[in-house]
Amino acid sequence: MKFTTKARLLAALCTALCAGLAATPAAFADGQPRQLTASAKLYKQYFQEASKEFDVPVELLESIAYAETRWVSHVPKGQLKKNGEPQLEIDPDPHHGMPPSYGIMGLRNDTYFGTSLTQGAALIRVSPEVVMIDVRSNIRAAAALLSQYGARKTKNFPLEDWEGAVARYSGIPQPEIAQIYTYEILTAIRQGREDSGYKVGQRHVEMEKVYGKEKLKKLSARRITIETGVPDPKISAPDFVDAPAKNK
Questions:
Q1: Residue 108: pLDDT above 90?
Q2: What is the pairing mode between strands 223-227 and 234-238?
Q3: Signal peptide location in the record (predicted)?
Q4: With the CA atoms of 207, 28, 169 and 162 taken in that order, what torsion angle do they form, in degrees rounded to the nearest 10?
Q5: What is the pTM of this model?
């Protein structure tokens, strides 16, 4: 089966969302929390500062960074900094793969997912090049975008009210795919996520209030594997198809 470029992009995105976030347990097997690295502690400080500056929930910033990069800054090829912080060098021309995302917050600048990189940079009045490589600026740019998308919401609003802003932040034009993204972001907050390199603060979220009972059943359903063709990989996605009714 032949797939369009957009379909391949969404397939790759579903792979990252459904395999990545769901793979990390909410708690450790030994019950002991991990000691955060020096970089992770610094990033926690940046998240707190950006939350206060732009009046957005700090847990959203932490969870988006977790979903996008596991708190590892993605920098353009040739611009790695020897500062001891976790970094991943990316190729700006992936050749038919996913368009690159930048920084710890996964900001983008492409024709499909949008221009959150340049928009966020403009909001905090720094260059996109700085936002690409500087973690603090990257977090501030993401927080500024969330604040704008939140339409005057503040960090004191219930997290459930921020779902629309998170969906817009994802840059995914298909509402049902964007809901996979927001579901995983909010689930990470509801359950908590922690390792030596990241820590997403745990906070109660009324998931049914966000998605409704029937939609939530589908979003939390078992994952199904979809064959996308060769050489495209298989992807994992929620089973949106209603199961056939059992014969009475």
A1: yes
A2: antiparallel
A3: 1-29
A4: 30
A5: 0.81
